[in-house]
Amino acid sequence: MIELVQTMEPELIARLVQIETEAFGPGGLNEWHLQPLIRHGRVYVYRSQTEIVGLVHYMLDWDHPQKAYMVGVSISKESRGQGIGAKLLKESFAALAKENIEEVELTVDPDNVAAVKLYESKLGFSVTDFKHDEYGKGEGRQVMKLILADFAKNTFKE
User: Fold this and answer.
1) What is the DSSP code (8-state) at residue 136?
2) What is the pLDDT of residues 77-108, one digit of tens each?
3) How many CB atoms lie within 10 A of CB 103?
């Protein structure tokens, strides 16, 4: 079950930063990034019993207000490989669709084979572009898009 984060409780923020750091090291979001995303974007968390084990965060695309950009998704070390990331994303897509979001866009390291496979094969994303040197020289990112109406119709592979 996912929930939308709407409070700035220090313990909650600390747990989210911990998961981000486990997943992305120094590239993970910290409290300075999470605060505005919680206030002005959407941050969803996944709980396993009472403990938060994953989060995904989105912001709106100002040029295309029916598009949400997925800033990132991260799962705690001890919870990886259990399908939690896919569940978190699927439930967050349903929540976004209820807010009249029509599509989700993300960028991913093309060498992150597991993530690309999840996005394409299990969730129905398609590759739309490649951004060379997006995060510096040699740090290109694959751009992927999901139309939420297609996702809702279950046109993706289970």
Assistant:
1) B
2) 999 999 999 999 999 999 999 999 999 999 99
3) 19
Q: What is the pTM of this model?
A: 0.91
Find, among 47, 95, 50, the residue nearest to 75 by Cα. Answer: 47
Sign of CA dihedral 10, 15, 19, 25: positive
**Beta pairing partners, 103:** 67, 147
Domains assigned to the chain: 2-152 (3.40.630.30)
φ and ψ at 50, to 5 degrees? -105, -10
Q: Establish how many alpha carbons lie within 13 A of residue 138's alpha carbon, considering only the half-sphere containing its beta carbon.
A: 0
First-to-last C-alpha distance (Å) of the chain: 19
- 3-state class (DSSP) for residue 18: helix
Place of tokens 């695309």: 61
Which DSSP state fits 118? I
